[in-house]
From TrEMBL:
Domain of life from the UniProt record: Eukaryota
Name assigned to this protein: Developmentally-regulated GTP-binding protein 2
Native species: Lipotes vexillifer
One Pfam family in the UniProt entry: TGS
Complex and partners: Interacts with RWDD1; this interaction confers protection to polyubiquitination and proteolytic degradation. Interacts with JMJD7; this interaction is direct.
Length: 364
């Protein structure tokens, strides 16, 4: 029996097993086996020697955004509208067959947008070049999930399932579990909160399935068995996702209103160019980028060339972006903006800068 058949058998058994106190250990073991087989499926096969066409694109710009969706939902049209790259768009499925990069120029930042080929059901098992598409998506900072507004609910649940089965966790944070494997000895299990979904026995069963003896497993939050398996596997990617419902000109106003009120969702129409500016605003928020402007002594700030950093960046990060030796020669910095109590404020390397701050660095 191959790996795909084993995965199918376990999925069927999980579906027909009732969820209650008596079956929680059995379900936990099944989920552990399922995660193990899926990890084996993602490993490249050693037998295949022929090399195919390269699929990944070199990372460039200040951030990377992956555009994921089923065929013919408007991904290529969207790329052509908001970037200067022309991606072929037609009324038939699978118009895009490889990864097409474009650059969004917004608020002084260059954001790389990747138009990926359409995903079909079963992509995680390798159907329709699905594995290559998902592998590129894992390298992105934010995922834009493009959905057809006329059938968005079905598409959304199928895509979440496909991405979830290969270790991409959308709009979730990493579980707060301390876990360290060791070679021998007993299991040290502890929790700082009351656990309602996991017990010590279930944790031991899952660890036994993976032949792991941890030095210590400390739960700092109430996590489910699935989240604990994610921590054991260690190859999960947690990234923000923006659900974009396209073709809203084909549905009623009540349906548009319902979709727009969903969390992490934006409604647009590429055909009529509706709401694209709001989508870019939301994308900027999800990328959590900040613009910092520099100033030379006795001169006006340079507002034409911004330094793009992540939210929470310090003066030290600004120094490294300007020149790698600047931090070692740093004396102090003068900062104008919302991160200071008064302008200009004299600060050190650890000061956290905020969006559109102006900084002047003084060397020793």
């Amino acid at each position: 029996m191959g790996i795909l058949e084993k995965i199918s058998e376990i999925e069927k058994e999980i579906a027909r097993t009732q969820k209650n106190k008596a079956t929680e250990y059995h379900l936990g073991l099944l989920k552990a086996k399922l995660a193990k087989y899926r990890a084996q499926l993602l490993e490249p096969s050693k037998s295949s020697s022929s090399k195919g066409e390269g699929f990944d694109v070199m990372k460039s710009g200040d951030a990377r955004v992956a555009l994921i969706g089923f065929p013919s939902v408007g991904k290529s049209t969207f790329l052509s509208l908001i970037t200067s790259t022309a991606s072929e768009a037609a009324s038939y499925e699978f118009t895009t067959l490889t990864c097409i990069p474009g650059v969004i120029e917004y608020k002084g930042a260059n954001i790389q947008l990747l138009d990926l080929p359409g995903i079909i059901e079963g992509a995680a098992q390798g159907k329709g070049r699905g594995r290559q598409v998902i592998a590129v998506a894992r390298t992105a900072d934010v995922v834009i999930m493009m959905l057809d507004a006329t059938k968005g609910e079905v598409q959304r649940s199928l895509l979440e399932k496909e991405l979830g089965s290969v270790g991409i966790r959308l709009n979730k944070h990493k579980p707060n579990i301390y876990f360290k494997p060791k070679k021998g000895g007993g299991i040290s299990f502890n929790s700082t909160v009351t656990l309602t979904q996991c017990s010590e026995k279930l944790v031991q069963l899952i660890l036994h399935e993976y032949s792991i003896l941890p030095e210590g497993a400390i739960f700092r939050e109430d996590c489910s068995p699935d989240e604990f398996i994610d921590v054991i596997m260690g190859n999960r990617v947690y990234m923000p996702c923006l659900y974009v419902y396209n073709k809203i000109d084909q549905i009623s106003m009540e349906e548009v209103d319902r979709l727009a009120r969903k969390p992490d969702s934006v409604v647009i129409s590429c055909g009529m160019k509706l709401n694209l500016d709001y989508l870019l605003e939301m994308l900027w928020e999800y990328l959590a980028l900040t613009c910092i402007y520099t100033k030379k002594r006795g001169q006006r700030p340079d507002f034409t060339d911004a330094i793009i950093l992540r939210k929470g960046a310090s003066v030290e990060h600004v120094c490294h972006r300007i020149h790698r030796s600047l931090a070692s020669q740093f004396k102090y910095a003068l900062v104008w903006g919302t991160s200071t109590k008064y302008s200009p404020q004299r600060v050190g390397l650890t000061h956290t800068v905020e969006h559109e701050d102006v900084i002047q660095i003084v060397k020793k």
